[in-house]
Design goal:
With about 500 residues, this protein is of the alpha/beta class. The protein contains 15 helices and 11 strands. The radius of gyration is 21 Å and the shape is globular. The protein starts with a helix and ends in a 32-residue tail after the last helix.
Length: about 500
C-alpha cells in the first residue's frame, strides 16, 4: 500500500518504481475487488492505461505524476462516455474535458475510469443509479452514501489513490463519512464547474476524496482557480495549503464553534458520541471551544428541497431527446419528449423534476421559491454571525451510520434527512470537509469541519490536528479471493455487468 500521493510521486521520480507498476498495483486491486464493491460504471482498458503510464516523462514536474484517479460519471472527459448513471444518456461522448480534468492532466494524473453515482446526483445512497448499487467496503450489506458513493467506495477500498466527486447538498462529505475517507466540499467559486453536468447550479461544487488530509489538500490545490469558462469562479484565490505546510504547527489557538441544539432528536447515539470525542480531542490540544447558536439551520432541509429541485427542473429540461441523449421514434415532438423523459429518467429524478416544476409554477413561485431564497439568506447570516466569534465550526457529517441497502428506498423523507448537517453549508457557499474519526460497530463515523469562505487552509489545519491525534484509521477488511479475476477490460463504451444485483 502507498501511504500517500506524495509517496507515489516521489517514488516515481526517484525511480523506486515506475508509473506502470503503480498502475498495476491499483488495477489488480480493481480486478479483485470491483465485482464485490461495484464502485465503477466504466473503466479504461488496461492496455490504453498502460500506454498512458509509459508515456509519462519521469522529468515531469506534475504534482500528481502517475497517480491513478477515478472520476464521478457526471464530470466530462473528452471521448470517454458520460452517463450520469442514467439511461437517458446511453451514448454521450463529451467533445471537451471539464476544466478540472485539464488541470489533472497537466499534473500527470492517470484517469482509471468513471464511478457510479445516484442518477444525476439525486440521492444519498447510490441506490438510485440506473445501473447497479455500489456497496460499502466496510460492510457489503450497507450503502456507501451518495451521490458520490462510487468515488468514496473506490478510494476506501484502495482501488484508486484519489477520486473526484460533486457536492450539491453533501454528496462528497456524506459518502466520505460512510466509507471512512476524507471528502472536501470547497468554497463555492473556488473550483470550476465547467464540464460538470449541472444538478443545482448555485450549489454544485467539484471536490476531492482521498485517504488522508494531505492528499485532499494537494488535489484541491490542483483543481482550484479562476476559469474564464465559468463566471462563478473567483480570481486571486488564497491558497488552500496551510501556511505551515503539513507540519501542523498551530501558533495561536483556534476557536471551534459547536451547537448542541442541533444534535437533539434524530441523530444516532454513535454519531453524537463521536462528535463529542472529537471536541474533547480539540480541547486537549489547546483549541478553544465556544457554544454558538445557528437557529435557522433547522430549515436547511426544507429550503434545499425547494431550491435544489427548482434548479434541477430547469437544468434537466435540456434532456428531451432532440439535442442529445436517448432517442425515440414518435409521431409528434410532444409524444417523443414524453417517451424519452418517461423511459430515460428514474423515479427519483422524475420526483425532483415534478417538485421543482411545482415550486416554480405560476401561483406557487412566491409562496415556495421566493420564500426559500429568503430563508437561505437567513441561514447564510447565521454562519456570518458565528464566524465573527469562531475560526471554524464542528458538526457531525451525517446523523446516521451507514444504513442497510434498501432500508430507506421506500421512504424519500428518511433518505433526505441523511444530508441534514451538510445541506446548510452548500446553501451558504462555505467550505467544509469530512474527516473519518473512528469506527462504531465496525462502521466509520466522520466529523465535519466548516470554515469561512476561501479559508480551506484553516479547516485543513484543524483536520490535520485531529488526524494526527486520532492515529491511523483502520481501512476496510474486504475478503479477497485467492486468485484474482481476469483483468476487467470494460472500455469507455461499456458498463460493468448489470446482472449482478444486490
Amino acid at each position: 500500500m502507498f501511504n500517500s500521493v506524495s509517496d507515489i510521486v516521489s517514488g516515481i521520480r526517484e525511480k523506486k518504481f515506475t508509473p506502470v507498476e503503480v498502475l498495476d498495483f491499483y488495477y489488480n486491486r480493481i480486478s479483485r475487488l470491483e465485482r464485490k464493491v461495484k464502485a465503477f460504471i466504466s473503466l479504461k482498458p488496461y492496455e490504453e492505461l498502460k500506454q498512458e503510464a509509459l508515456s509519462l516523462d519521469k522529468s515531469h514536474k506534475g504534482k500528481l505524476l502517475g497517480v491513478p484517479v477515478a472520476v464521478k460519471d457526471n464530470i466530462n472527459i473528452r471521448g470517454f462516455k458520460t452517463t450520469c448513471a442514467s439511461r437517458i444518456l446511453p451514448d454521450y461522448y463529451p467533445p471537451y474535458n471539464a476544466t478540472v480534468i485539464e488541470h489533472l492532466k497537466r499534473e500527470g494524473a492517470i484517469f482509471i475510469g468513471k464511478t457510479n453515482m445516484d442518477e444525476f446526483a439525486f440521492g444519498s445512497s447510490t441506490e438510485n443509479s440506473s445501473f447497479h448499487t455500489t456497496l460499502n467496503p466496510y460492510d457489503l450489506t450497507r450503502v456507501p452514501g451518495g451521490s458520490s458513493g462510487g468515488s468514496a467506495a473506490a478510494v476506501s477500498s484502495r482501488m484508486v489513490a484519489l477520486a473526484l466527486g460533486s457536492d450539491t447538498g453533501g454528496s462528497i462529505r456524506q459518502p466520505a463519512s460512510f466509507c471512512g475517507v476524507v471528502g472536501v466540499k470547497p468554497t463555492y467559486g473556488r473550483v470550476s464547474r465547467k464540464g460538470l453536468v449541472a444538478f443545482a447550479s448555485s450549489l454544485d461544487q467539484i471536490g476531492p476524496l482521498s485517504v488522508n488530509i494531505e492528499d485532499s489538500v494537494l488535489l484541491l490545490e490542483v483543481i482550484s482557480g479562476y476559469d474564464p469558462g465559468d463566471s462563478t469562479t473567483v480570481k486571486n484565490q488564497p491558497s488552500c495549503i496551510p501556511s505551515d505546510g503539513f507540519r501542523n504547527l498551530i501558533e495561536e489557538p483556534l476557536t471551534i464553534g459547536y451547537s448542541p441544539a442541533l444534535l437533539e432528536g434524530g441523530v444516532e447515539e454513535e454519531v453524537v458520541d463521536t462528535f463529542y470525542e472529537a471536541l474533547e480531542l480539540f480541547k486537549k490540544g489547546g483549541f478553544k471551544l465556544k457554544e454558538i447558536e445557528l437557529p435557522y439551520l433547522k430549515y436547511g432541509l426544507s429550503v434545499y428541497y425547494i431550491l435544489g429541485t427548482a434548479e434541477a427542473s430547469s437544468n434537466l429540461a435540456r434532456f428531451d431527446g432532440i439535442r442529445y441523449g436517448l432517442k425515440h421514434n414518435s409521431r409528434t415532438i410532444k409524444e417523443m419528449v414524453e417517451k424519452v423523459r418517461g423511459e430515460g429518467f428514474g423515479p427519483e429524478v422524475r420526483r425532483r423534476i415534478l417538485l421543482g416544476t411545482f415550486a416554480l409554477s405560476s401561483g406557487f413561485y412566491e409562496d415556495y421559491y421566493i420564500k426559500a431564497c429568503k430563508v437561505r439568506a437567513l441561514i447564510q447570516n447565521d454562519f456570518f454571525k458565528a464566524f465573527q466569534e469562531v475560526d471554524m465550526i464542528c458538526l457531525p457529517t451525517s446523523p446516521d451510520l451507514p444504513f442497510l441497502v434498501g432500508s430507506k428506498s421506500d421512504d424519500p423523507l428518511k433518505m433526505y434527512k441523511a444530508d441534514l448537517f451538510t445541506i446548510p453549508i452548500n446553501l451558504a457557499g462555505l467550505p467544509a470537509l469530512n474527516l473519518p474519526f473512528n469506527l462504531k460497530n465496525g462502521l466509520p463515523v466522520g466529523v465535519q469541519l466548516i470554515g469561512r469562505p476561501f479559508e480551506e487552509a484553516t479547516i485543513f489545519q484543524g483536520a490535520m490536528f485531529l488526524e494526527r491525534e486520532r492515529g491511523p484509521f483502520t481501512p476496510p477488511a474486504i475478503e479477497e479471493p485467492l486468485t484474482p479475476h481476469p483483468r476487467i477490460e470494460y472500455g469507455a463504451d461499456s458498463t460493468l455487468p448489470l446482472e449482478e444485483e444486490v
